Every structure is written in structure tokens, then in C-alpha cells.
Known about the structure:
Blueprint: H1 3-16, E1 20-26, E2 36-41, H2 45-61, E3 68-70, E4 77-81, E5 85-90, H3 92-98, H4 100-104, E6 110-112, H5 125-130
Parallel strand pairs: 2-5
Antiparallel strand pairs: 1-2, 1-6, 3-4, 4-5
Helix pairs in contact: 1-2
Amino acid sequence: MDIRKLQKIVVSALEDIKGSDIEVFNTTKLTSLFDRVVVASGGSNRQVKALARNVQDKVREAGGEVRGVEGEDAGEWVLVDLGDVVVHVMQPAVRSYYNLEELWAVKPSRTKAAAKEEIPEAPPPAARASVGRRKAV
Length: 137
């Protein structure tokens, strides 16, 4: 399936179930593993699961292949592997903590700012790395 068509199906499926803060990253110059990373937020475990399930259903209806799904049991962060596109659906607190947007360090090729909600700022990477560590005495 054409990458643009697959991307459109994914974004549309997320918008259908009111996914928020949808961002699409073009990763073709960063990795050869996949061409796009899509990150979206859902307000609850139930919504995160529904968003991921809708992505899977819409891709299959269009003749695409779902290669794998992780995290459906907990519903805080569900990853849907579509081959050329990897979809991360997360609750806002989890998304803020892991900050995948910073990890890919590229400007999003598309941003959907459906809901302008305040998400608490993630601690700087150095602070995250030191959580749980004890100083040597």
C-alpha cells in the first residue's frame, strides 16, 4: 500500500474516535526500519484501546497488514506496527513522560491540534535518568 494512503487511513481512523494531538513524523531520512511514526493521545485506557483498534480495523478494511500490536492489555500506551508506519497511542501523562517527539527530533509533517489541553511538561532527560538512583556513599 502507498505510504501516503496508509498515513491518511491512520490519521482518519484516529480522528474518527477523537484522538487528540495527532502528529505524523517522516522518518525516511532517520531510519530504514519504517517511513512514518504517528503519535496520538487518548484520554483514558478505554479510548487508547479504541483508537488502536480502529486503526487496525481501518487498515485491514483497506487491504493493509497489521504486523503487530503491543500494550493493548494495559491501555496506557498501545503500539500498532503497520510495517512502513508505526503508530503510538498514549495517554497524555505517558506521552509527556516519554516525549517521543523529542526522540525523533524532527519537525512533524502534520499536526492535528484538535484539543488545546495543557499537558504537564516532562522532566528534562537528565532528571528522568536520575529518578530512582541513589548516590554512592
